[in-house]
Amino acid sequence: MFFNDWETIGRTLLVGVLAYIGLIMILRVSGKRTLSKMNAFDLIVTVALGSTLATILLSKDVALAEGITAYFVLIAMQYIFTWLSVRSVTVSKLIKSQPELLFYNGEFYRGAMKKSRILEIEMLQAARSNGLSSFEEVLAVVLETDGSFSVVKKEGGESVQSTLQNIQN
């Protein structure tokens, strides 16, 4: 129960170090996008990579080469889908959510808040986190695709190049 044998411990150490090095090498080759802030699509890949690492470490039935191949497949699939999503609006819409406008110019968008399961208090917290002392200083609050809030402060006037141009209300 607490100890089987030294061979199992040695295998776990050796395979663990090699699997970790393999994962780091593949992640470095795949680029910064693989390790970026996560939306749902990225989270799935990250969880799958963690699960694969655990399986490689703890299962004698999975050879190191098979585990490294699994890493490669997961990261290659993420690379392919992100490459396609940059080049195709249809693919992008299929695998990524859109930012959601929750508050604009003094008005809470209750329907969007309910759909996204967001409370007003969470937006107040986001405003405080952005150094604002009053919600009257806020032009807009957006729920981003990674689940974070963007708080847009009021300025002298809205620009033609507004950061809210891709948000639908």
Question: Which key terms come to mind for this protein?
Answer:
single chain, 169 residues, alpha+beta, CRO Repressor, 2 domains, four-stranded antiparallel sheet, 54% helix, 11% strand
Question: If you had to describe this structure to a student in words, what would you say it looks like?
Answer:
The protein has 2 domains: about 5-95; about 100-155, CRO Repressor. A hairpin with a 5-residue loop joins strand 3 and strand 4. The model has no long low-confidence stretch (mean pLDDT about 85). The chain has a 4-stranded antiparallel sheet with strand order 2-1-3-4. It contains 6 helices and 4 strands. Helix content is about 55%, strand content about 10%. The longest helix has 25 residues, at about 5-30. The protein has helices at about 5-30, 40-60, 65-85, 90-95, 110-115, 120-130; strands spanning about 100-105, 105-110, 140-145, 150-155. By secondary structure, the chain is α+β, with helices and mostly antiparallel strands. The protein is elongated and about 65 Å long.
